[in-house]
Amino acid sequence: MKNTIGKIFSDETDEEVHSEFVKFSRGVFDNRYLVEGKKQAGRWAIKTSSEFANFFVRNILEKEKGEVQIKGIIVSTLDLESDCEFEIEDVKKYMGIKQLVLNCQTSGDKILRLMDKYPRAFYALSFSVNGNELKIKAKAPKSGKPGTKTKGDEDEGPRADFCSLKTSDRSIIDELFFDFPNFNEIKIKHVIEVKEIEIPKDVKTPEEMREKAVRKGVIKRFVDVNGKKEVAEKSFVV
Question: How far apart are CA 128 and CA 60, in angstroms?
């Protein structure tokens, strides 16, 4: 499966891409979709920002049919409990946000069924299976505003440290690093500029306007691969 950035650069935007871009207003959003990779003996070590969490969870669990020991949280504004086919250790609520705390053994299919029904929930889940060691911070991601600085901007810049994956799965590497799949060390960041927002005429409420609005703009992909820097640019309508 492709992640959001891969879909945009291959002209395969869909409802999933639209859902991820709903959070963007008009403006320039720097340091998004951060991803780093290092080649190790027989596998790769990957670190990313929070935007890749759901991609990792789904991609890995789709290839696992057995039981998996899973720990972490699922974050949403909706009530998901009745649709969970696995044990929930705790439920935390704050300002309309609900966090389901997991520390259980379950099948990947049960997690995937929940993801299919609630694709906009945030699945910060950690587990090891089939040569994949996935660790995601058990907290809700911050939603930055255009032009705002992230902690660390003044020194080393924002860090790709929300998700950590050690894998021997070549398909994940080919998907994340579609333009430079063969590397010893690589760092990538994206700058998203939303230039225009079109609101359909048949919607009236603010919620509908936000959800159904079409965003037009440009995404720039800054790559530092094996010490060499490259920049790619792609227009989007999502």
Answer: 9
Domain that holds residue 105: 64-129
How many angstroms separate the CA atoms of 111 and 121, rounded? 12
Residue 36 CA to residue 139 CA, distance in Å, equals: 21
User: In sequence order, what E strands does 174-227 have?
Assistant: 185-198, 214-225
Last residue of a domain, one of 129, 152, 167: 129
Residue 58 in any domain: the answer is no
Domain-ending residue, one of 102, 129, 156: 129
Q: Summarize pLDDT for 33-84 with one digit per residue, the tens.
A: 999 999 999 999 999 999 999 999 999 999 998 999 999 999 999 999 999 9
The DSSP bridge pattern shows strands 163-167 and 43-48 to be: antiparallel
